[in-house]
Amino acid sequence: MAIDTHAHIFDEAFDEDRDEVIQRIIEANINKVVVVGFSKETNNLALELAKKYDFIYPTTGYHPSEANDITDTDIIELESFINQNKVYAIGECGLDYYWVKDNIEKQKWLFNEQIKLAIKYDLPLVIHCRDAVADVYQILKGYKGQVHFVMHCYSGSVEMAREFVKLGGYISLGGPVTFKNAKTPKEVAIDVPLDRLLIETDCPYLAPTPYRGKRNEPAYVRNVLNEIALLRGMEVIELEHILDQNSINFFNLD
Ligand SMILES: [Zn+2]
Description:
Layout: E1 2-7, H1 18-27, E2 30-36, H2 40-52, E3 56-59, H3 72-84, E4 90-96, H4 104-120, E5 125-130, H5 133-141, E6 149-151, H6 158-166, E7 170-173, H7 183-191, E8 197-199, H8 221-232, H9 236-251
Parallel strand pairs: 1-2, 2-3, 4-5, 5-6, 6-7, 7-8
């Protein structure tokens, strides 16, 4: 089996053929998919998919790009959502200075609120970080030993990956590790301690080679797995087994 730890199959990119995408998940022997919400609407969509398919595990949270619209009331709503529904992580949440950087304080507030919820409900945290690695690191450092987190679709340096691992974090790699010129993700794939590594697709985005530029889907997590096995000089089946166990442990999957 294999596990895709970060997918958005509620996305409208799958509206035309979602059943076929689900069928290919089964055919590819992917037996668990973590479906990650990032807004009020998508948190509900992730939950609906999980009710329909027992191999789908939902998460719930507010993405930093939602920050301008989120108020205290929405945080209270998020907390009651967590109380009322079985979710496997908080997130994706974090900081993104690529798209918007005139609301940094609001983004930090939103991130901190979700970290506090993760600690309170003993849930892992799925972190989105784009052009904001120093601030994400500083914030997480303030909660060292209290919060269980993964840097999703990690795109930073080997050195920063080591720092996140020192804070107890996991590093998740997706499609970019398969790209021909992706020197740094390949170095990270080799350097991360095996017990802190996860894999994902982040579909519909970031399709791995040979699908680069096309729509991504969970079945393609096998391309990510195969590439990392090659880079680390391991048998695919051996790496698959370790990564499955990491995913089950991290998200507390049944
Ligand atoms: Zn995502």
